[in-house]
Design a protein that fits this description.
By secondary structure, the protein is mainly α. The protein contains 13 helices and no strands. It is globular, with a radius of gyration of 18 Å.
Length: about 270
C-alpha cells in the first residue's frame, strides 16, 4: 500500500486531481456547466506535464534523460498524453487558443532558456508568478472560454481570487525548499524570512476573501464555501511546521482543493 501511495503522488495523479477540483469549483462558483471533455483533457494533460517537469528538473534541465523516468510513470504519461490529444478534439477553437498560451507559459518555465542551462524555475518571483498564472488560467479561464464569456465581471474577480489562493498554496513548498534552493534564486522566504512570508500569505487570504463580496452574483453557498477555503488556508499558514514531514506538501497541501470540493458537497447536501 505504501508503494501504491508513493506512486500515486510521484506519478502526478494526485496533483492532477487537485487541478480538476479547482476546475470544478470554478464551474460551481460561476454557475457554468461542467464540460466533461475539458475535465478529461485537463486531468490527463496534467499528468505528463508534471512528470516531464520533474524529470527535467532531476536531470538538471537536460532532455536526454527525459525518457529515463520509471517505466510505469513513462507508460502512464504516454497513455495520458494520448488520451488528452483525443479529448482536445472536442473543444472550441477559443479554448484551444487559450490552452496554447498556457502551454507556452509552461514551456518557458521548463526550458533552459537562461544562461548556464537554467530555466525560470531558478528565478523565485518569476517562478511563482508563472505557476500561479498557469494554474489559474487552466482552472478559471479554460472552463469559462469553453462554455461562457470572459466579459463577465465575476469571472475576473474569480481569476484574481484563484491566483491569490494558488500563490498562498505555494508558500509551504517555498518554505520546504528553503534549505535546498540556491541562494541566488531569491524566493519569497529567502527575501522576507519565514515569519514575514506567513504574514504576507495571511494578508493575501484576507484580500481574497474580501473580493468575494465584489461579485455581482453571490450565493450563500459560495460565501460559505469560500469562507472555508480562506480559513483553512489561514490555519495552514499559522500552523505550518518549519520542518515538514515527507509528504506534507506534496500530498496534504495539494489535497486542499479536493477537501474544498468535499466541503462544498457537504454544504449543498445540507442546504
Amino acid at each position: 500500500m505504501r508503494k501504491i501511495f508513493e506512486y500515486y503522488v510521484k506519478a502526478s495523479i494526485h496533483v492532477a486531481l487537485a487541478v480538476l477540483a479547482l476546475l470544478y469549483l470554478t464551474c460551481q462558483f460561476l454557475n457554468i456547466p461542467v464540460n466533461k471533455s475539458l475535465f478529461f483533457l485537463v486531468f490527463f494533460s496534467t499528468i505528463p506535464t508534471y512528470n516531464v517537469i520533474r524529470q527535467i528538473s532531476r536531470k538538471r534541465n537536460r532532455f536526454y534523460g527525459l525518457f529515463n523516468m520509471p517505466g510505469i510513470s513513462l507508460t502512464v504519461s504516454l497513455v495520458s498524453l494520448g488520451l488528452s490529444l483525443y479529448f482536445i478534439t472536442y473543444l472550441k477553437w477559443q479554448t484551444l487558443l487559450t490552452l496554447l498560451v498556457l502551454s507556452l507559459l509552461t514551456a518557458i518555465y521548463t526550458l533552459p532558456i537562461l544562461p548556464e542551462g537554467k530555466n525560470l524555475r531558478h528565478r523565485g518571483l518569476v517562478k511563482i508568478l508563472i505557476i500561479g498564472l498557469v494554474w489559474t488560467g487552466t482552472t478559471v479561464l479554460l472552463p469559462v472560454v469553453e462554455v461562457a464569456s470572459l466579459q463577465s465581471w465575476d469571472v475576473w474577480v474569480e481569476f484574481v481570487q484563484r491566483l491569490l489562493l494558488i500563490l498562498v498554496l505555494m508558500v509551504p513548498f517555498e518554505i520546504r525548499d528553503l534549505g535546498t534552493d540556491p541562494a541566488d534564486m531569491l524566493t519569497i522566504p529567502q527575501r522576507l524570512g519565514i515569519a514575514r512570508t506567513r504574514r504576507l500569505g495571511l494578508w493575501a487570504c484576507l484580500i481574497c476573501y474580501l473580493l468575494t463580496f465584489m461579485m455581482d452574483e453571490l450565493s450563500g453557498e459560495e460565501i460559505l464555501g469560500k469562507t472555508i477555503m480562506v480559513l483553512s488556508l489561514g490555519a495552514l499558514l499559522i500552523f505550518l511546521p518549519k520542518k515538514q514531514p515527507r509528504f506534507f506538501a506534496s500530498f496534504w497541501v495539494e489535497a486542499f482543493p479536493i477537501f474544498w470540493v468535499l466541503a462544498l458537497w457537504g454544504i449543498q447536501a445540507l442546504v
